[in-house]
């Protein structure tokens, strides 16, 4: 029997889905999960997602580099904000990061109870995540971080991309997965153009971080998955042929 794949469009809706024994793929394209994959792909040893600023701030004393952002802006007193570009060129290789963001780290927190495993997904490691999921004997729930509880286009389109990539191996069991697969397949040749109209892209453009948006919409820059082990996200390599 084929495994199932379904989509939850917001952390506010996660209680409507059965997480038990599923692999949950949390996605926050702009920018939390794209930033996490970039950091792991550039050698950081682990990322501890933290839901609130105060807890994250206190982890500095335990030797973590702290990354904090609210509403698209770096938080006061934090070394790092939420830009993937900050981690390029192995800038923080070997370091432990504690990170809190507006939507992404909350979605990770809300995915924890009962899941078989939690992965973080991004366009920049789409193929690696798909390749890994094909080998696992579990149903999949794609959990979109959305924006402050609302649906957003970029996380939902990533869900469509992952469903489209896995369509041969999984049965598509929810209307949201069917809808997003179809939308992704009609927009994938011009993803940046289509997503330029997304509300979150406009919000980030107002903060002059267009370079982050372009970076987050590239495909397959890293052949790693990001997996939560205990409280830490770590990188696992995927063999290439
Ligand atoms: O920094 C980001 O990209 C966003 C900020 S907001 O959603 O525009 O307020 O945070 P994230 O948790 O990555 O969605």
Can you give a write-up of this model?
The protein has one domain (3-227): ComB-like (putative 2-phosphosulfolactate phosphatase), CATH 3.90.1560. The protein is 32% helix and 22% strand. The chain has helices at residues 32-41, 53-58, 104-109, 126-134, 153-166, 175-187, 191-195, 199-206, 210-216; strands spanning 3-8, 23-27, 46-49, 65-70, 73-74, 96-100, 117-121, 140-144, 170-172, 224-229, 232-237. The strands form 2 sheets. The chain has a 7-stranded mixed sheet, with helices on both faces. A 4-stranded mixed sheet has the order 3-6-4-5. Helix 5 (153-166) crosses helix 6 (175-187). The longest helix is centred in the middle third of the chain and has 14 residues, at 153-166. The mean pLDDT is 95. The ligand O=C(O)[C@H](CS(=O)(=O)O)OP(=O)(O)O binds at residues 28, 30-32, 69, 71-72, 82, 101-104, 145, 147, 200, 203-204. InterPro entries: ComB-like, ComB-like_sf.
Summarize it.
By secondary structure, the protein is an alpha/beta fold. It is built from 9 helices and 11 strands.
Identify the notable features of this structure and list them briefly.
241 residues; alpha/beta; putative 2-phosphosulfolactate phosphatase; four-stranded mixed sheet; 9 helices; 11 strands; 32% helix; globular; binds the ligand O=C(O)[C@H](CS(=O)(=O)O)OP(=O)(O)O; ComB-like_sf; magnesium
């Amino acid at each position: 029997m084929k495994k199932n794949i379904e989509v939850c469009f917001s952390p506010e809706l996660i209680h409507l889905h059965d997480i038990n024994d599923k692999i949950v793929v949390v996605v926050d394209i702009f920018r939390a999960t794209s930033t996490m994959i970039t950091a792991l792909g550039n050698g950081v040893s682990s990322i501890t997602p933290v839901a609130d600023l105060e807890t994250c701030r206190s982890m500095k004393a335990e030797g973590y580099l702290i990354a904090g952002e609210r509403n698209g802006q770096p938080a006061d007193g934090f070394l790092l904000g939420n830009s993937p570009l900050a981690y390029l060129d192995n800038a923080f290789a070997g370091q432990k990061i504690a990170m809190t963001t507006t939507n992404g780290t909350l979605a990770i927190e809300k995915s924890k109870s009962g899941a078989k495993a939690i992965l973080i997904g991004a366009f920049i490691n789409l193929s690696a995540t798909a390749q890994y999921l094909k080998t696992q004997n579990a149903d999949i729930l794609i959990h979109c971080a959305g924006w402050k509880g609302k649906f957003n286009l970029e996380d939902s389109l990533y869900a469509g991309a992952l469903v489209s990539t896995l369509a041969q191996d999984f049965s598509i069991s929810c209307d949201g997965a069917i809808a997003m697969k179809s939308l992704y397949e009609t927009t994938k040749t011009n993803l940046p153009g289509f997503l330029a109209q997304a509300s979150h892209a406009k919000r980030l453009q107002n903060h002059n971080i267009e370079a982050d948006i372009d970076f987050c919409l590239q495909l397959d820059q890293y052949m790693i998955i990001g997996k939560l082990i205990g409280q830490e996200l770590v990188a696992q390599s995927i063999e290439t042929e």
